[in-house]
Design goal:
Largest sheet: 7 strands, parallel
Order of helices and strands: EEEHHEEHEHEHEHEHEHEHEE
Number of helices: 9
Strand order of the largest sheet: 5-6-7-8-9-10-11
Mean pLDDT: 94
CATH class of the largest domain: Alpha Beta
CATH superfamily of the largest domain: Enolase-like C-terminal domain
Number of strands: 13
CATH topology of the largest domain: TIM Barrel
Structural class: alpha/beta
Helix content: 25-40%
Strand content: 15-25%
Length: about 350
Protein backbone atom coordinates (compact mmCIF):
# COMPACT_ATOMS: atom_id res chain seq x y z
CA UNK A 1 0.00 0.00 0.00
CA UNK A 2 1.29 3.45 -0.94
CA UNK A 3 0.04 6.01 1.56
CA UNK A 4 -0.10 9.75 1.44
CA UNK A 5 -0.31 11.71 4.67
CA UNK A 6 -1.29 15.22 5.67
CA UNK A 7 -0.71 17.00 8.98
CA UNK A 8 -3.02 19.74 10.19
CA UNK A 9 -2.21 21.55 13.46
CA UNK A 10 -5.21 22.90 15.31
CA UNK A 11 -5.79 24.87 18.50
CA UNK A 12 -8.91 23.85 20.41
CA UNK A 13 -10.66 26.19 22.84
CA UNK A 14 -12.20 24.95 26.08
CA UNK A 15 -15.84 25.80 26.74
CA UNK A 16 -14.80 26.53 30.32
CA UNK A 17 -11.27 26.76 31.76
CA UNK A 18 -10.09 23.27 32.74
CA UNK A 19 -8.38 23.38 36.12
CA UNK A 20 -5.64 20.84 36.79
CA UNK A 21 -2.79 20.53 39.27
CA UNK A 22 -0.53 21.95 36.55
CA UNK A 23 -2.58 25.08 36.09
CA UNK A 24 -5.61 26.00 34.03
CA UNK A 25 -6.03 25.04 30.37
CA UNK A 26 -7.86 27.53 28.12
CA UNK A 27 -6.62 26.14 24.80
CA UNK A 28 -5.25 22.83 23.58
CA UNK A 29 -3.02 22.19 20.56
CA UNK A 30 -3.43 18.98 18.57
CA UNK A 31 -2.24 17.66 15.22
CA UNK A 32 -4.74 15.87 12.96
CA UNK A 33 -3.32 13.21 10.65
CA UNK A 34 -4.99 12.52 7.31
CA UNK A 35 -4.24 9.27 5.51
CA UNK A 36 -5.09 8.31 1.92
CA UNK A 37 -3.63 5.83 -0.54
CA UNK A 38 -2.66 5.93 -4.19
CA UNK A 39 -4.67 2.76 -4.76
CA UNK A 40 -7.90 4.12 -3.19
CA UNK A 41 -7.68 7.93 -3.14
CA UNK A 42 -11.31 8.32 -2.07
CA UNK A 43 -10.72 6.37 1.14
CA UNK A 44 -9.41 8.26 4.18
CA UNK A 45 -8.09 7.64 7.66
CA UNK A 46 -8.04 10.28 10.39
CA UNK A 47 -6.05 10.26 13.61
CA UNK A 48 -5.16 12.73 16.33
CA UNK A 49 -1.78 13.40 17.90
CA UNK A 50 -2.24 15.29 21.15
CA UNK A 51 0.71 15.54 23.56
CA UNK A 52 -0.04 17.26 26.86
CA UNK A 53 2.22 20.24 27.65
CA UNK A 54 4.66 19.65 30.51
CA UNK A 55 3.41 16.09 30.97
CA UNK A 56 3.78 13.90 27.87
CA UNK A 57 7.17 12.26 27.39
CA UNK A 58 6.99 13.40 23.75
CA UNK A 59 6.14 17.02 24.52
CA UNK A 60 9.22 18.23 22.67
CA UNK A 61 10.19 21.46 20.83
CA UNK A 62 10.84 19.44 17.66
CA UNK A 63 7.52 17.53 17.93
CA UNK A 64 6.21 18.50 14.51
CA UNK A 65 9.46 17.51 12.81
CA UNK A 66 9.35 14.09 14.52
CA UNK A 67 5.73 13.70 13.43
CA UNK A 68 6.60 14.60 9.83
CA UNK A 69 9.42 12.06 9.82
CA UNK A 70 7.10 9.33 11.13
CA UNK A 71 4.55 10.14 8.44
CA UNK A 72 7.27 10.09 5.79
CA UNK A 73 8.40 6.61 6.93
CA UNK A 74 4.81 5.39 6.69
CA UNK A 75 4.59 6.76 3.14
CA UNK A 76 7.88 5.13 2.16
CA UNK A 77 7.30 1.69 3.68
CA UNK A 78 3.52 1.39 3.79
CA UNK A 79 3.85 0.13 7.37
CA UNK A 80 3.83 1.72 10.82
CA UNK A 81 7.12 1.20 12.67
CA UNK A 82 5.70 0.85 16.19
CA UNK A 83 9.03 0.01 17.79
CA UNK A 84 10.61 3.21 16.48
CA UNK A 85 7.74 5.22 17.97
CA UNK A 86 7.76 3.77 21.51
CA UNK A 87 9.19 7.03 22.85
CA UNK A 88 6.51 9.08 21.06
CA UNK A 89 3.20 7.68 22.32
CA UNK A 90 0.94 10.48 21.07
CA UNK A 91 2.38 10.16 17.55
CA UNK A 92 2.04 6.39 17.67
CA UNK A 93 -1.58 6.68 18.82
CA UNK A 94 -2.47 9.16 16.08
CA UNK A 95 -0.94 7.06 13.31
CA UNK A 96 -2.21 3.68 14.46
CA UNK A 97 -5.77 5.00 14.82
CA UNK A 98 -5.60 6.75 11.43
CA UNK A 99 -4.64 3.37 9.94
CA UNK A 100 -7.47 1.66 11.82
CA UNK A 101 -9.93 4.25 10.49
CA UNK A 102 -8.60 3.76 6.97
CA UNK A 103 -8.90 -0.03 7.20
CA UNK A 104 -12.37 0.04 8.79
CA UNK A 105 -13.55 2.74 6.36
CA UNK A 106 -15.70 4.01 9.21
CA UNK A 107 -15.39 5.85 12.52
CA UNK A 108 -16.86 2.68 14.02
CA UNK A 109 -13.29 1.41 14.17
CA UNK A 110 -14.13 -2.06 15.48
CA UNK A 111 -17.37 -4.05 15.29
CA UNK A 112 -18.74 -4.05 18.84
CA UNK A 113 -22.10 -3.49 20.57
CA UNK A 114 -20.82 0.04 21.31
CA UNK A 115 -19.99 0.81 17.67
CA UNK A 116 -23.41 -0.55 16.64
CA UNK A 117 -25.13 1.78 19.11
CA UNK A 118 -26.47 -1.13 21.15
CA UNK A 119 -24.53 -0.54 24.36
CA UNK A 120 -23.01 2.47 26.11
CA UNK A 121 -19.73 2.53 28.03
CA UNK A 122 -20.13 3.43 31.73
CA UNK A 123 -17.98 6.47 32.52
CA UNK A 124 -17.11 8.55 35.56
CA UNK A 125 -18.36 12.10 36.00
CA UNK A 126 -15.28 14.32 36.25
CA UNK A 127 -15.21 17.24 38.71
CA UNK A 128 -12.61 19.78 37.64
CA UNK A 129 -10.47 21.69 40.09
CA UNK A 130 -11.84 25.05 41.15
CA UNK A 131 -12.95 26.90 44.22
CA UNK A 132 -15.41 25.34 46.64
CA UNK A 133 -18.51 26.84 45.00
CA UNK A 134 -17.45 25.82 41.50
CA UNK A 135 -16.73 22.23 42.50
CA UNK A 136 -19.94 22.02 44.57
CA UNK A 137 -21.98 23.13 41.53
CA UNK A 138 -20.28 20.54 39.31
CA UNK A 139 -21.01 17.78 41.83
CA UNK A 140 -24.70 18.69 42.05
CA UNK A 141 -24.98 18.68 38.26
CA UNK A 142 -23.31 15.26 37.89
CA UNK A 143 -25.56 13.80 40.58
CA UNK A 144 -28.65 15.21 38.87
CA UNK A 145 -27.56 13.63 35.58
CA UNK A 146 -27.41 10.22 37.23
CA UNK A 147 -23.70 9.50 37.38
CA UNK A 148 -22.91 6.50 39.57
CA UNK A 149 -19.16 7.14 39.60
CA UNK A 150 -17.78 10.59 40.36
CA UNK A 151 -14.12 11.53 40.18
CA UNK A 152 -12.79 14.64 41.94
CA UNK A 153 -9.51 16.25 41.09
CA UNK A 154 -8.17 17.37 44.46
CA UNK A 155 -5.28 19.56 45.53
CA UNK A 156 -6.53 22.93 44.29
CA UNK A 157 -8.24 24.08 47.48
CA UNK A 158 -7.88 23.45 51.20
CA UNK A 159 -7.92 19.73 52.03
CA UNK A 160 -10.65 20.26 54.64
CA UNK A 161 -12.86 21.85 52.00
CA UNK A 162 -12.23 18.94 49.67
CA UNK A 163 -13.25 16.55 52.44
CA UNK A 164 -16.41 18.63 52.88
CA UNK A 165 -17.27 18.19 49.20
CA UNK A 166 -16.81 14.45 49.47
CA UNK A 167 -18.94 14.36 52.63
CA UNK A 168 -21.69 16.17 50.73
CA UNK A 169 -21.81 13.33 48.19
CA UNK A 170 -21.74 10.69 50.91
CA UNK A 171 -24.57 12.45 52.73
CA UNK A 172 -26.79 11.79 49.73
CA UNK A 173 -25.40 8.53 48.35
CA UNK A 174 -23.80 5.45 49.87
CA UNK A 175 -20.72 3.80 48.35
CA UNK A 176 -23.01 1.21 46.75
CA UNK A 177 -25.00 3.97 45.05
CA UNK A 178 -22.14 6.26 43.95
CA UNK A 179 -18.51 5.25 43.55
CA UNK A 180 -16.09 8.01 44.53
CA UNK A 181 -12.66 8.35 42.98
CA UNK A 182 -10.14 11.11 43.71
CA UNK A 183 -7.11 12.23 41.72
CA UNK A 184 -4.34 13.96 43.67
CA UNK A 185 -2.08 14.39 40.60
CA UNK A 186 0.93 13.89 42.87
CA UNK A 187 -0.19 16.66 45.20
CA UNK A 188 0.54 14.91 48.53
CA UNK A 189 3.99 14.61 50.05
CA UNK A 190 5.42 11.27 51.22
CA UNK A 191 5.25 12.67 54.77
CA UNK A 192 1.56 13.69 54.78
CA UNK A 193 0.12 11.20 52.28
CA UNK A 194 -0.78 8.40 54.67
CA UNK A 195 -2.59 10.66 57.15
CA UNK A 196 -4.63 12.15 54.31
CA UNK A 197 -5.38 8.71 52.90
CA UNK A 198 -6.65 7.60 56.31
CA UNK A 199 -9.04 10.55 56.45
CA UNK A 200 -10.26 9.94 52.90
CA UNK A 201 -10.88 6.29 53.75
CA UNK A 202 -13.60 7.35 56.19
CA UNK A 203 -15.65 8.40 53.14
CA UNK A 204 -15.55 5.04 51.33
CA UNK A 205 -13.31 6.20 48.49
CA UNK A 206 -12.94 3.65 45.69
CA UNK A 207 -9.38 4.67 44.76
CA UNK A 208 -6.93 7.54 44.62
CA UNK A 209 -4.82 8.37 41.58
CA UNK A 210 -1.19 9.25 42.00
CA UNK A 211 -1.17 10.46 45.64
CA UNK A 212 2.49 11.56 45.44
CA UNK A 213 4.47 12.79 42.46
CA UNK A 214 5.89 10.25 40.03
CA UNK A 215 9.42 8.88 40.29
CA UNK A 216 9.41 8.00 43.99
CA UNK A 217 9.08 4.24 43.59
CA UNK A 218 10.08 3.26 47.11
CA UNK A 219 7.69 5.74 48.72
CA UNK A 220 4.89 4.78 46.36
CA UNK A 221 5.47 1.08 47.04
CA UNK A 222 5.22 1.82 50.78
CA UNK A 223 1.93 3.62 50.25
CA UNK A 224 0.42 0.84 48.15
CA UNK A 225 1.15 -1.54 51.06
CA UNK A 226 -0.08 0.74 53.86
CA UNK A 227 -2.86 2.80 52.30
CA UNK A 228 -6.44 2.00 53.37
CA UNK A 229 -7.52 3.20 49.90
CA UNK A 230 -6.52 1.40 46.69
CA UNK A 231 -3.91 3.37 44.75
CA UNK A 232 -4.02 3.86 40.99
CA UNK A 233 -0.97 4.94 39.00
CA UNK A 234 -1.24 7.44 36.18
CA UNK A 235 1.65 9.91 35.75
CA UNK A 236 3.94 7.18 37.12
CA UNK A 237 3.54 5.27 33.85
CA UNK A 238 4.64 8.13 31.57
CA UNK A 239 7.96 7.50 29.85
CA UNK A 240 8.00 3.84 30.84
CA UNK A 241 7.87 2.59 27.27
CA UNK A 242 9.55 -0.82 27.00
CA UNK A 243 7.83 -4.02 28.09
CA UNK A 244 10.66 -4.75 30.54
CA UNK A 245 10.28 -1.30 32.16
CA UNK A 246 6.53 -1.79 32.49
CA UNK A 247 6.92 -5.17 34.16
CA UNK A 248 9.56 -3.81 36.57
CA UNK A 249 7.49 -0.78 37.58
CA UNK A 250 4.41 -2.86 38.33
CA UNK A 251 6.40 -5.48 40.19
CA UNK A 252 8.23 -2.96 42.39
CA UNK A 253 5.30 -0.65 43.22
CA UNK A 254 2.51 -3.24 43.03
CA UNK A 255 -0.40 -0.77 42.74
CA UNK A 256 -4.01 -1.85 42.99
CA UNK A 257 -4.84 -0.17 39.65
CA UNK A 258 -3.26 1.54 36.66
CA UNK A 259 -4.99 4.15 34.52
CA UNK A 260 -4.20 4.04 30.83
CA UNK A 261 -4.25 6.95 28.41
CA UNK A 262 -3.16 5.89 24.91
CA UNK A 263 -1.79 9.35 24.04
CA UNK A 264 0.46 9.21 27.11
CA UNK A 265 1.13 5.54 27.72
CA UNK A 266 2.20 3.99 24.44
CA UNK A 267 -0.67 4.24 22.01
CA UNK A 268 -3.07 1.33 21.68
CA UNK A 269 -0.30 -1.23 21.28
CA UNK A 270 1.60 0.07 24.31
CA UNK A 271 -1.52 0.20 26.48
CA UNK A 272 -2.31 -3.36 25.43
CA UNK A 273 1.11 -4.32 26.83
CA UNK A 274 0.28 -2.52 30.08
CA UNK A 275 -3.04 -4.39 30.32
CA UNK A 276 -1.47 -7.78 29.69
CA UNK A 277 1.29 -7.19 32.22
CA UNK A 278 -1.09 -5.79 34.83
CA UNK A 279 -3.44 -8.74 34.38
CA UNK A 280 -0.57 -11.18 34.87
CA UNK A 281 0.24 -9.43 38.19
CA UNK A 282 -3.42 -9.23 39.32
CA UNK A 283 -3.53 -5.45 38.99
CA UNK A 284 -6.75 -3.75 37.86
CA UNK A 285 -6.99 -1.07 35.17
CA UNK A 286 -9.26 1.30 33.34
CA UNK A 287 -8.99 3.55 30.28
CA UNK A 288 -9.08 7.35 30.22
CA UNK A 289 -8.92 10.01 27.53
CA UNK A 290 -6.43 12.85 27.92
CA UNK A 291 -8.10 16.02 26.62
CA UNK A 292 -8.20 14.89 23.00
CA UNK A 293 -10.84 16.21 20.62
CA UNK A 294 -13.67 13.93 19.52
CA UNK A 295 -11.35 12.32 16.95
CA UNK A 296 -9.09 10.97 19.69
CA UNK A 297 -11.93 10.32 22.15
CA UNK A 298 -13.81 8.24 19.59
CA UNK A 299 -10.72 6.16 18.81
CA UNK A 300 -10.11 5.49 22.51
CA UNK A 301 -13.75 4.62 23.15
CA UNK A 302 -13.97 2.35 20.11
CA UNK A 303 -10.87 0.47 21.30
CA UNK A 304 -12.07 0.41 24.90
CA UNK A 305 -15.29 -1.25 23.75
CA UNK A 306 -13.26 -4.24 22.50
CA UNK A 307 -11.84 -4.87 25.99
CA UNK A 308 -13.24 -6.88 28.93
CA UNK A 309 -13.90 -3.82 31.08
CA UNK A 310 -15.72 -4.07 34.41
CA UNK A 311 -15.25 -0.56 35.85
CA UNK A 312 -16.46 2.89 34.75
CA UNK A 313 -13.99 4.41 32.28
CA UNK A 314 -12.77 8.02 32.01
CA UNK A 315 -14.08 8.90 28.56
CA UNK A 316 -15.96 12.18 28.87
CA UNK A 317 -13.24 14.75 28.28
CA UNK A 318 -13.40 14.91 24.48
CA UNK A 319 -16.53 17.06 24.63
CA UNK A 320 -14.95 20.07 26.31
CA UNK A 321 -14.21 22.26 23.30
CA UNK A 322 -16.14 24.98 21.47
CA UNK A 323 -14.50 24.06 18.16
CA UNK A 324 -14.57 20.28 18.41
CA UNK A 325 -14.78 17.87 15.48
CA UNK A 326 -18.31 16.57 14.91
CA UNK A 327 -18.61 12.92 15.87
CA UNK A 328 -21.63 10.72 16.70
CA UNK A 329 -20.73 10.57 20.39
CA UNK A 330 -23.01 11.60 23.23
CA UNK A 331 -23.46 11.05 26.95
CA UNK A 332 -26.76 9.77 28.31
CA UNK A 333 -26.97 9.49 32.08
CA UNK A 334 -23.62 7.91 33.03
CA UNK A 335 -22.72 6.25 29.74
CA UNK A 336 -20.92 7.28 26.55
CA UNK A 337 -22.79 6.25 23.41
CA UNK A 338 -21.91 6.09 19.73
CA UNK A 339 -24.62 6.84 17.18
CA UNK A 340 -27.58 9.19 17.05
CA UNK A 341 -29.51 10.15 20.17
Amino acid sequence: MTFKTTIRPSTLHFKQPAGTSRGVYNTRKVWYIGLTSVEEPQRIGLGECAPLPNLSCDDLPEYEEILKAACHRLEETGELDKEALRSYPSILFGLETALQHYNANSFALWDTPFSRGERGIPINGLIWMGDYAQMYHQIEKKMELGFRCIKLKIGAINFEEELSLLRYIRKHFTAREVELRVDANGGFTPEDALSKLNRLAELDIHSIEQPIRAGQWEEMARLTKESPIPIALDEELIGCNSLAEKAELLRKINPQYIILKPSLHGGICGCTEWINEATSQNIGWWITSALESNIGLNAIAQWCATLPTTLPQGLGTGMLFTDNVEMPLYIREDKLWYGTK
